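Work Package 3 (structural annotation) set out to generate three-dimensional models for the target panel prioritized at the project kickoff. During this period the team completed the workflow that converts sequence records into discrete structure tokens, so that structures can be stored uniformly alongside our sequence database. As a representative example, we reproduce one entry of 282 residues exactly as it appears in the project archive.
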Amino acid sequence: MTVIIGMLMVIGAILGGYLIEEGNVALLLNPPELLIIFGSAFGSLVVGSPMKVVKGVISNVTSILKEGGHTKQDYLEMLALLSIVFSKVRKEGLISIEADVEEPNKSPMFSKYKSVISNHHAMRFICDNLKVIITTNMPPHELADLLDIDIEANANEEILPAMALQKMGDALPGFGIVAAVLGVVLTMEKISEPPAILGHCIGSALVGTFLGVLLCYGFVGPIATNLELKAKEGEIIFYVIKTALVAFVGGAAPQIAVESGRRAIPGHDRPTFSELENAVRK
């Protein structure tokens, strides 16, 4: 919803100022120039990006209308799940969770937390690293290094669509100039026409430059920034999981390990100590 509001603000401010000066809105609606600008820009994206990145751009752009991000409740469920896992390991040993991490969707322990199960990246991160803990005797510092590698690899993959879209946005003003030049070429064919007609043609040609700059700085660039910030925000939950796992492997009690994970949550989403305690008890 905030994305739509922002776009309406951009359009409203520009059209409002244009109409105050008694501009002709119909002159700005130029489908051929939009086709030239957008078609060329998307073509440059396809040329400059692997197909999996192009698909990532399309799927991510269609998801920007969702608020996204992790809420306090999501973090509470994640920490409550880790608390149950750690407590079971402490009481029954590492082998007791082997079946749960092999098939988390069928696990009574995991399936109670719908927000965790639906976050496939986080679920895979938890299960893969619990398998490492079960099958090896890795020291805490080595486990921390391994988790950092995993987080960095995932972060690099998640940021690629935003980077590709930003490069496409940077190209839009250039393609706007291309559309404007083509408009001038068409105008020169009508050089014998009256000044009123020539003025209209030149005005239509300059709309290409206007649209290229507007689309770059008003829409595509901000959308790329939105995707980048969402990707960075998505890293937080991995650091929360990492902090709790490393603390537990280091010998901390389940309550202390989970509390360590809570401290890794940013302040505006971090649940209080009491909220976490109540979530664990439930």
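The two ends are 33 Å apart (CA to CA).
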